[in-house]
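Handout, section 3.2

Students often ask what a structure token actually looks like in practice. Rather than define it abstractly, here is a full record for Stress-associated endoplasmic reticulum protein. The first block is the sequence as you would receive it.
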Amino acid sequence: MAQTPQQRRANLKFAKENEARMGKSENQIKKRTKEAIKSPISPFWLILLGFVVFGGLIFEIISRIFLR
């Protein structure tokens, strides 16, 4: 069976990655392959959500204290 161009590219990529791993310990390989976990929500939206929730709570507490 002949290889398709897509399969050939995938095989070359796999061979290149395996060749780069040769002679290295598992710890070195794991350190290099770990990626930082990226949050699905940007920091801007997290801050905005925090402001809406906690800001509303703070304003509610202030209004209850001063407007008894």
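Discussion prompt for tutorial groups: The helical segments are 5-21, 26-33, 43-66. How would you have guessed this from the sequence alone?
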